[in-house]
Design a protein that fits this description.
Number of strands of chain B: 0
Helix content of chain B: over 70%
Helix content of chain C: over 70%
Shape of chain C: elongated
Strand content of chain B: under 5%
Number of domains of chain B: 1
Number of helices of chain B: 5
Number of helices of chain C: 3
Oligomer: heterotetramer
Number of strands of chain C: 0
Order of helices and strands of chain B: HHHHH
Strand content of chain C: under 5%
Chains: A mainly alpha (about 300), B mainly alpha (about 90), C mainly alpha (about 100), D mainly alpha (about 100)
Chain lengths: ~300, ~90, ~100, ~100
């Protein structure tokens, strides 16, 4: 369909213009807003690439959490860089080098093998054993479960890294400042209205993830964003990082995953294996725990290092 | 019909994309924020048009997530502009 | 019937596109921050609303159609609150500057 | 066709991000550029996945989702480091190399 071709050209042109502007804009805030816009446009690109699962994750992260993370801090780091950047000649040389990298990658894209190698048959052959309908969820939770398990540990490590930036006397305290908003104001109103809806959307995205695009990562991101909104609206406070309940939620996902994965050694004969009869139930259990942990981890990553004494 | 919807999506995309020039010119930070907000609404419209034209009903869920989170970036922005970075943006 | 529905979709979606165009032109051409904000919130709500309206008859079932309306309502909610909050930020930022409100 | 177009876009984004990462001095700008670079790599990967046929190849898709989430975690850690740097030194860039 030629119309789709036209749309693709428009989308690609806008994406490249926005990416260039995010690098070239003089103003730090303008560059940040360009980057947030970029995240939204890339979500559209994923739909065109027939990767709706990825588009959901990109929409929740690129257009949601990244915006909250970056736009909140630009005012605190607006100071100009004092080290002079490379001079004009040097910039040209660097630009030429980067263009060469792009050209090499483009050449690789143009010489991709035909017919395209594909893991679709392998996934289709194995997916009945999981009881799932969404192949991406099956890959994440079953076929490449160890990737996902290690990823959740990486998220926890990043969170430890953020927390460790707190000075000793604040260790264990609450991240960020206590947010305030007038109780009858617009922000508090939004903060009361959106979280229940967001909770519903999050549970919905988690639930359909077994058979349609969606799943633990997308749902966790949505829940994290909604929690951050409640915090920014002053309706809830970030918990102190020493809180035992918080720490239990943070590790629940990896622990349940590891537990069921280890049980798989004895029941299904392989680490992270599932007995076919109970596969779907077990996977949904792991996913539910992961959703909670991912939501808490991402929200606290965005909330930042502890700034208030415990 | 699908052809028409895709052309409409391309039109909306190009239109709100042109609006992004506002991010470059400002002058107020609020102006820059607005352009991103317009792209958000336009992006939702493009996704819905594509969901029908490409027969990908799941893309409607992407639009749902965008609509749910549409206000979040702006809330973080106004919060960051309050004197302490966490105060009442409506004070 | 089929033809009438197609016509309805084409009309609504086209009108929606016009409103997006109007919002963009307003945002690019209007002289100061608050009038630009005004143009934006009016037009993009209507633009998305008309696109949603035009697509409603193409939905598979009632649940899908309701989801579409829900998306529009969420976008309305976001636009209304963002307009409020950003307008206040703009007032504070431009106070005392030429073209801005008195301090 | 679609895959090639978006693959080429990914290749261009890698170059744009790399340029920003080298040329920019402000740490937050570098973080943005780094994310553009990473996103270009994801797009390249997504183009390869799209060629597998209708619906795409789910294995790269799953890995891209993993990558996007890890990129967010790394960015959050980066932002926390930039904030720490700004608070400690009043500057938003690391010390220039000696010499």
């Amino acid at each position: 369909m030629t119309a789709l071709w036209l749309l693709d050209l428009c989308l690609v042109a806008v994406i490249l213009a926005v990416a260039l502007s995010a690098v070239a804009a003089r103003d730090l805030f303008a560059a940040t807003v360009f980057f947030v816009a970029y995240g939204l446009l890339i979500a559209l690109a994923w739909v065109r690439l027939d990767a709706v699962d990825v588009a959901l994750a990109e929409a929740a992260i690129g257009a949601g959490l990244t915006g909250v993370l970056l736009l909140g801090v630009t005012a605190r780091v607006h100071m100009e860089a004092r080290t002079p950047g490379p001079g004009r000649g040097m910039r040209l040389a660097i630009g030429a080098g980067c263009a060469a990298v792009s050209v090499a990658l483009a050449a690789a894209v143009l010489s991709l093998p035909v017919p395209a190698p594909s893991l679709v048959p392998a996934v289709e052959a194995a997916i009945p054993a999981t009881g799932l309908g969404n192949p991406v969820t099956a890959v994440l939770l079953a076929f490449r479960g160890y990737d996902t398990l290690l990823e959740t540990l990486v998220l926890l490590l990043a969170l430890l890294g953020v927390w460790s930036l707190a000075p000793d006397r604040l260790w264990g305290g609450r991240p960020g400042l206590r947010h305030r908003a007038r109780p009858e104001g617009t922000l508090a109103w939004l903060g009361r209205l959106l979280p229940p809806i967001g909770l519903l959307v999050g549970v919905y995205v988690f639930w359909i993830g077994s058979d349609q695009p969606g799943g633990a990562f997308q749902a966790g991101t949505i829940l994290a964003a909604v929690w951050l909104l409640a915090i920014m609206a002053g309706l809830s406070d970030a918990p102190p990082v020493r809180s035992l309940a918080l720490r239990l939620v943070l590790v629940a996902g990896p622990v349940v995953f590891l537990g069921i994965g280890t049980a798989g050694l004895f029941v299904a004969g392989a680490f992270l294996g599932y007995p076919p009869a109970a596969a779907k139930t077990l996977i949904v259990t792991v996913e539910a725990a992961l959703t909670l942990s991912i939501a808490a981890t991402l929200a606290l990553l965005v909330a930042g290092a502890p700034e208030r004494a415990p | 019909m699908a052809e028409f919807l895709v052309v409409a999506a391309a039109f909306v995309l190009l239109t709100v994309g042109a609006g992004l020039v506002r991010i470059l010119h400002g002058p107020a930070e609020a102006d820059r924020m607005m352009a991103a907000q317009l792209l958000g609404s336009g992006g939702i419209a493009v996704l819905l048009l594509l969901a029908v034209a490409m027969e990908r009903p799941a893309a409607v869920d992407v639009a749902l997530v965008l609509a749910l989170l549409a206000a979040f970036a702006a809330v973080a922005f106004v919060k960051g502009r309050s004197p302490s970075g966490a105060g009442d943006p409506e004070a | 019937m089929r033809l009438a529905l197609d016509l309805f979709t084409i009309l609504c979606v086209s009108a929606g596109g016009v409103f997006f165009l109007a919002a963009t032109i307003g945002m690019l051409r209007f002289p100061d921050t608050l009038t630009r904000l005004h143009a934006l919130t009016k037009a993009d709500n209507l633009g998305l609303g008309l696109v949603v309206l035009g697509l409603l008859p193409r939905m598979e079932g009632v649940a899908e159609a309701l989801k579409l309306v829900g998306i529009w309502l969420l976008a309305l909610l976001a636009a209304a609150t963002v307009a409020q909050l950003v307008a206040r930020a703009a007032l504070r930022e431009t106070a005392g500057q030429p073209g801005g409100p008195p301090r | 066709m679609t895959a090639t177009l978006y693959g080429l876009t990914g290749a261009a984004l890698v170059g744009i991000g790399l340029y920003g990462l080298i040329v920019r001095r402000h740490a937050l700008r570098r973080l943005l550029a780094f994310n553009l670079l990473g996103s270009g790599v994801f797009l390249l990967f997504g183009a390869v996945a799209e060629r597998a046929g209708p619906g795409g190849d789910p294995v790269p898709h799953a890995m891209i989702i993993t990558g996007i989430v890890v990129a967010l975690a790394a960015t959050a850690l980066g932002v926390a480091l930039v904030l720490h740097l700004a608070r400690e030194t009043g500057r938003a860039e690391p010390d220039p190399p000696e010499g």
